[in-house]
Amino acid sequence: MSASLPRVAVSPPAGWRPAVSALINALVLAALGGLFYLGHHTEWKLPRWSAILGTAEPRVDDWCVEHLVPESACIECVPDRFPKGPSFGFCREHGVADCVLHHPELAQVRGEPQLPRYDTLQALAVLPRPENNSRNMLHTQRLQFADVEGPARAGIEVDVVRERPMRDELTANGELMFDPRRVVHLSSRVSGTVAVVWKSLGDDVAAGDLLALVDGAVVGQLKAQLLQAVVQLQFKRSTVERLRDVGLAGVVPQKSLIEAEAALQEAEIAYLAARQGLENLGFDVPDTWETAAPRQTADELRFLGIPAALLAELPSGARTGNLIPLRAPLAGTIVQADVVPGEVVDVTKTLFTLADPQRLWLVLHVRQEDARYVRPELPVRFRPDDGGAELEGRVSWISPVIDERTRTLSVRVLLSAVDRPLRDKTFGTGRIVLREEPHAVVVPRSAVHTTHDAHFVFVRNKEFFEDGAPKLFYVRQVRLGARDEDYVELLAGVLPGEVVAAEGSSVLLAQLLRSSLGAGCGCHE
Can you quote a single GO CC term (predicted)? Predict the structure, then answer.
């Protein structure tokens, strides 16, 4: 074996590490400088893939940035490509510019335009309507799309101007209440103690039904006075008859007959007074008692006004001559009862409240500023807050007084027959129908737009889908009428059959206002 040679360590030349570090720093600085130079000259924009891949990129010059359509087709930049029609100015009668009611040839419909089937001027006069400024010039502009798919790409949906029933209404809060003429608050006619109670809360009663009996000492006293008056009357009457018979024979002096007749008259007055006292308490006193036997009169008088069938139900301690019945004066339902047997009552305490649930009033509280539009016999629709079906009726009475606290006018409504029970003190919302139009010209609510001085819709050109025709929408001033949750009536500005931008039409509004501002706003030129 040969002997191994010793390894000799080779060390780098002195100063090598500083040289490498300096070279790396120089390369980094050079790269940053190149990046800065490139960014400065490209405005810090990344190159397109076509430039990176070395492919040519077509340059687009045919585009109108202001109107967002090809410049070669823009009708706003070059109006001669699609001249605007004649302008007829502002219609003072209907309150719109270029009125299609007077100039139906402006309507964007195929065939013969259809005018509204009702008097729109009369409808305009029903209520104050929002007005348009005659100097507003937004209607002179047109909004153009590049192609027929443009509105859909922008999220715009269209709808057709149509006819449907609409109503002009006044809205007012209201409440159902019992007819005050059919509500009775019953109390005892005399002070005393409640002896028997036959009816309670919620019971239905007929007119004349017995509700309760009150034991009052005054009743017994009046019955005693009547019985005494009957006895005296019969005695005085028999005395006069006897004296007349013997007086004719000259047996007794004429003076005695005159005195007897005077006493008879006093007895008759006393009887009538005693009878009236019981009748004032509601008792029905028979005329036969004047001639009936006193014993028979006393028996009938003791339980006067109490049916014989109920006498057996009276407790033993209640069988007195002091009983006064409390009866229902009308048919209805007991809606309040505050009485129990043995309770001491007086004439000021209400024992029963009786009401007719089939006879309710609707009272609406109309705002003072709306009061001048309300008149008798106007139809009314009322939606109770309890979720029940809508009620119908007609205005029957209008208060001549404004409530000084709420500044509202009370309007009473006579309700039509309903097939469900109604409840007193039910609140809800009433609508007084001022005008009902079965053929109102309407558009969706989303189609109507408003500036500070005008109301308008965007009407699609009738030649929108024809080849070579511009794809545009007209700005049309309108007058607003009745409205509901989905539709708005247009009393002027459009005709049935025209197509308007609906959902998403705010895109057109934004472009319209943008164009107006770009043109120096010429809204009121």
Answer: outer membrane-bounded periplasmic space
CB neighbours of residue 57 within 10 Å: 9
The answer to whether the beta carbons of residues 483 and 445 sit under 8 Å apart is yes
What is the domain range of residue 274?
Answer: 217-321
Provide the pLDDT for residue 58: 42
Q: Around Cβ 434, how many Cβ atoms within 10 Å?
A: 18
pLDDT, one tens digit per residue, over 360-376 is 899 999 999 999 999 99
Integer CA distances (angstroms), 507 to 158, 201, 429, 503, in order: 13, 64, 36, 10
pTM (two decimals): 0.69
**Measured distance CA(430)–CA(367) in Å, rounded:** 12
Among residues 467, 385, 396, the alpha carbon closest in space to that of 426 is found at 385
**pLDDT higher than threshold 80 for residue 36:** no
From its phi and psi, is residue 34 left (phi > 0), alpha (psi between -120 and 50) or beta? alpha
Asked if residues 177 and 425 have their Cβ atoms less than 8 Å apart, the reply is: yes
- Residue 3: inside a domain, yes or no? no
Tally of structural domains, the chain: 2
Torsion angle defined by CA atoms of residues 100, 104, 107 and 112, in that order, rounded to the nearest 10 degrees: 150
The last residue of one of the domains, among 284, 301, 321, is: 321
Same domain, 228 and 308: yes
CA atoms within 13 A on the CB side of 339: 32
Find, among 92, 88, 166, 90, the residue nearest to 127 by Cα.
Answer: 166
pLDDT value of position 66: 65
Q: How far apart are the first and last CA of the chain?
A: 116
Per-residue pLDDT reduced to its tens digit, 257-285 = 888 889 889 989 999 999 999 899 888 88
What is the pLDDT, as a whole number, of residue 400? Answer: 94
Return all residues near 51 (Cβ < 8 A) that are at least 6 apart: 57
pLDDT at 379: 96
Query: Using an 8 Å Cβ cutoff, are 328 and 322 in contact?
Result: no
Is 152 domain-assigned?
yes
Q: Are 393 and 362 in contact (CB under 8 A)?
A: yes
Residue type, 134: S
DSSP 8-state code for residue 64: B
- Interacting residues of 306 by C-beta distance below 8 A, sequence separation 6+: 210, 213, 314, 323, 325
φ, ψ (nearest 5 deg) of residue 163: -110, 140
Quote the CA–CA distance of 350 and 334 in Å, as a whole number: 12
Residue 346 tokens, joined: 């007086």
Over the stretch 109-164, which tens digit does the pLDDT of each residue have? 999 999 999 999 999 999 999 999 999 999 998 888 888 998 998 899 999 999 99
Which DSSP state fits 142?
A: E
